[in-house]
Every structure is written in structure tokens, then in C-alpha cells.
Design brief:
Helices cover 39% and strands 14% of the residues. Helix 3 (67-80) runs parallel beside helix 5, helix 13 (346-359) runs parallel beside helix 14 and helix 14 packs parallel to helix 15. By secondary structure, it is α/β, with parallel strands linked by helices. The strands form 3 sheets. It has an 8-stranded parallel barrel with strand order 1-2-3-4-5-7-10-11, surrounded by 5 helices. A hairpin with a 4-residue loop joins strand 12 (435-438) and strand 13 (443-446).
């Protein structure tokens, strides 16, 4: 059979400045493997994946993409893509087993080598301190609903900075605290698999407090210029109609999914309508004196992860006592979707960047994750012709350029993900990577989307080079 496909030509993206950052991103638990090596202890994801039914294909990140053993080769592929930046996360239980006590020398040594390997190849390391792998011992002690976990996180941040701060200048405290709080503690779809709305509210506040405490420690300990930020998953959702009940459903959904995190970080207070709604159902956020000042210390950059766009409608039933989605439903409007079932709306990325610049002015933005899972396969010629992923990247990068042209202070774009990986509760069924991983052999295959991305970066830079 002759393989036929329509390749998408790379083009220079207009309107992006020379200093615009191009990157790729990953996270520790999704790619590293080596889950029980060199002193690493269990995270909540190690425990969660052992629960029957927790992961769709009954897999775990125990081996993942085996990046822990293949790091130099993987960094060579990163450099070959021509990106400026590699955003990665540090495994908390690898660096500080159990979540307390001294640094694990063998664990931090991996990241020491990774940073040196990146710098040696001209790639800037962008370090995320937390991408959902809480040490299990801290979960046993209460997890993120417990205030003490925020202080333990600040101690961990200081340990990592002490080891790597002489070479790493870009630091992100948390990745998507909303997902950690809601999926982990409210709807049980992610680790640690709890279903407790009140606990998820406590986790929300303590995650944000952890950011504030850790950011303060990083800045106090820095002996060279440093940029500290946080990464949020944000969406540009719309109401299904102009009916007041649908408009109100959108306001409630936007309040919980976006403003509950943006407002305390960038305005120093939780949104009044959300707080009032919680109070009417007997719930409150566990704010103590001084917390909001810590949380709202200015960030040097806000990371924006964009994947989803939903059309929101009221169910016709009153919002119940517990749950972020009570009284709300998502309407299928027939939009094209990824293999995750997520609507593909590039214009939504443009709108969310413009909204951030309009409603939270003065905050530099970087798109720290954007990408798509598709059911791509290896063709007869040995290549992966992932045309839909390439089109997805093309259209979303164009949306970033339009947002910049309209005034958004967006300074970079990082594709998710560098390589196929353990996709949380989906296991290995969904592939987001620019690079295909054969999990049986750990062979890497550069997909067409990676070739396209590399050439688009080169053309967009002109003669600048990396």
C-alpha cells in the first residue's frame, strides 16, 4: 500500500520578536521512569496507579519513556529541534525522599547532569518544581489539604535551588494547581484519588500558599538574576446561549476554573462571587492572616497551559452543595476534537492571552504547554506523518502571533510534549509527543510535526540562530 499524506510546509511566523522563546516541555513522572532507583520513594502517582481501575490501561510511570537512563540522547534531540528552552520538572520524591529531610545526592545528581547537558548544547533550562508528584508520606500526613504541606514544599524548593540555582534562572513553582486540587481531591480522576469537595478547596489555597512561600525562598536565596513564576491551565469557554441561566453558568464555571487562581495571584484576593457562592453552601477557603500577601507577590512570568475550550450551559437544576460542576453541563457543538476529546479552537488561545493582558495588565506571559494527542502511527516508510498535530501547532502558534500583534505581552511558546509519555489516568493510550516512543523498545522516532516545528522556528528567527 502506498502511503499518502499532505505535508504542511513550515513558514516564518510574522510578528514574533527576536527574543521570543521557543521551547518544548515534559514532566518528571511522565517520562523519567526509574521509579525505585537511586533512593527515589513513592509519589502519590506511584500509589494511585496501583489502584484497580485508576489508569485506563492499568499502567504506571515506573518505566515511562526511560528518560532517566537516556537523558543525554534525549537532550541531543531537544537541541536538534533548535528550541531555546526546555521546560522540565523535578521529581520531589527523587530529590527529597519522603518529602522531608536532606537532599538525596543521587537524586539531585540526575538534574545536575541534565542542566549541564542542556547548557552544553545551548538550551536554556526552565525548571518546574512541582508537576503533581507529591511524596506519598506527605499525602499520608494530610496532603495538600494540610497547611503544613505548603511549608514542606518551600523547604524542598530551597534544596533544589541550592543545588541548581547557580545555573538555572527560570523557575516555575507549580504546574496547574487547579488540576492537582480538583482532579486529585474533588473528583478522584487523578492522584491521590480523593472525592472531597471541602478538601479540594483546602488544597487549592495551600497550593497557592506553597507557591508564595517557595517564590519567597527562591528570591531570598538567589545570588544571580532569577525569574520566578507559576503555570496555570486556563480556558476560554463560552456560554451556550444568551439566556441568563447559561450566562450565569459560564460565570460560575469561569470563576472556579480561572479566576479562583488568577485573582489571588495577580490581585491579592479571591473573587468575591466565588467566595460568596462557597459561603452559601457552608464552605470557605482556609485563608490566614498574611497568606494573600505571600500568594500575590509579583510573578516574573505567568505560564499559560492551553488545551481546552468548552461551551457551557445550565443544567436546569440548582447548583448543589458540593462540586465545581454542579448545575453546569458542557454542550457538544460539533467542533473538531483531539484524541482526548478536547475541542480544537486556536482562537481561544488568542482570546485568553488578550484577556490576561487586559484584566491582569503588566504580567508577562509564556505559553508553557500547548499540544494535542492524536492516534498517529508509524507508516510503511518508517515515519510518523502526524498531519493533524502539525496543523494544530501551526494554528495555535498563529493565534499566539495574533495575540502579540493585538497587544498581549506573550514572550514564548512551548510545545507539549517533547515525546510520547505516560498520560496520567489515560496511561499510554494517548500520544502527545513530537517524538514517538516505542514503549517496548524505547526507540525514538522524530515525527513530521517535530520536523515542521524545527523548520518553523528556524524560519521565524531569520538569521538569528539559537
Amino acid at each position: 500500500m502506498v502511503n499518502t499524506f499532505d505535508p504542511i510546509a513550515p513558514v516564518a511566523v510574522p510578528g514574533l520578536p527576536d527574543r521570543f522563546l521557543w521551547g518544548v516541555a515534559t514532566s518528571a513522572y511522565q517520562i523519567e521512569g526509574a521509579a525505585a532507583e537511586d533512593g527515589r520513594t513513592d509519589s502519590i502517582w506511584d500509589t494511585f496507579t496501583r489502584e484497580p481501575g485508576a489508569v485506563a490501561d492499568r499502567s504506571s510511570g515506573a518505566t515511562a519513556a526511560d528518560h532517566y537512563h537516556r537523558m543525554p540522547q534525549d537532550v541531543a534531540m531537544i537541541a536538534d529541534l533548535g528550541v531555546d528552552v526546555y521546560r522540565f520538572s523535578v521529581s520531589w520524591p527523587r530529590v527529597q525522599p519522603g518529602g522531608t529531610g536532606p537532599v538525596n545526592p543521587r537524586g539531585i545528581a540526575f538534574y545536575d547532569r541534565l542542566v549541564d547537558e542542556l547548557l552544553g548544547r545551548g538550551v536554556r533550562p526552565w525548571l518546574t518544581l512541582y508537576h503533581w508528584d507529591l511524596p506519598q508520606e506527605l499525602e499520608d500526613a494530610g496532603g495538600w489539604p494540610a497547611r503544613d504541606t505548603a511549608h514542606r514544599f518551600a523547604d524542598y524548593a530551597a534544596l533544589v535551588h541550592e543545588a541548581l540555582g547557580d545555573r538555572v534562572s527560570d523557575w516555575s513553582t507549580l504546574n496547574e494547581p487547579g488540576v492537582a486540587a480538583v482532579c486529585g481531591y474533588a473528583n478522584a480522576s487523578h492522584a491521590p484519588g480523593r472525592r472531597d469537595f471541602a478538601a479540594s478547596l483546602d488544597a487549592t489555597h495551600h497550593l497557592l500558599l506553597a507557591h508564595g512561600l517557595a517564590a519567597g525562598r527562591l528570591r531570598e536565596n538567589a545570588t544571580a538574576p532569577i525569574e520566578v513564576g507559576i503555570t496555570l491551565d486556563l480556558a476560554d469557554d463560552v456560554a451556550a446561549s444568551t439566556r441568563p441561566e447559561d450566562q450565569e453558568a459560564l460565570r460560575r464555571w469561569d470563576g472556579f476554573s480561572n479566576c479562583l487562581f488568577l485573582d489571588p495571584l495577580l490581585r491579592g484576593s479571591y473573587p468575591e462571587d466565588v467566595v460568596g457562592r462557597l459561603a452559601r453552601t457552608g464552605h470557605r477557603l482556609p485563608v490566614e492572616d498574611g497568606d494573600l500577601e505571600l500568594i500575590a507577590a509579583p510573578v516574573d512570568v505567568l505560564g499559560v497551559n492551553y488545551y481546552r475550550y468548552d461551551t457551557v450551559a445550565a443544567t436546569g437544576q440548582p447548583a448543589g452543595e458540593a462540586g465545581y460542576e454542579q448545575g453546569i453541563r458542557m454542550v457538544d457543538t460539533g467542533l473538531p476534537r483531539t484524541a482526548m476529546g478536547w475541542n480544537i479552537v486556536p482562537d481561544g488561545l488568542e482570546r485568553i492571552l488578550l484577556r490576561l493582558s487586559r484584566e491582569y495588565p503588566g504580567t508577562p506571559l509564556v505559553v508553557t504547554e500547548n499540544g494535542a494527542a492524536f492516534d498517529d502511527t508509524v507508516a510503511g516508510d518508517g515515519a510518523v506523518h502526524d498531519v493533524r498535530r502539525t496543523a494544530y501547532l501551526r494554528d495555535h502558534i498563529a493565534a499566539v502571533a495574533r495575540a502579540r500583534a493585538a497587544g498581549a505581552d506573550v514572550r514564548g511558546y512551548f510545545a507539549w510534549s517533547l515525546m510520547d509519555n505516560f498520560e496520567w489516568a489515560e496511561g499510554y493510550r494517548k500520544r502527545f509527543g513530537l517524538i514517538r516512543v516505542d514503549y517496548a523498545t524505547q526507540q525514538r522516532i522524530i515525527k513530521d510535526s517535530a520536523h515542521w516545528y524545527r523548520e518553523t522556528i528556524r524560519l521565524s528567527r531569520g538569521d538569528r540562530g539559537r
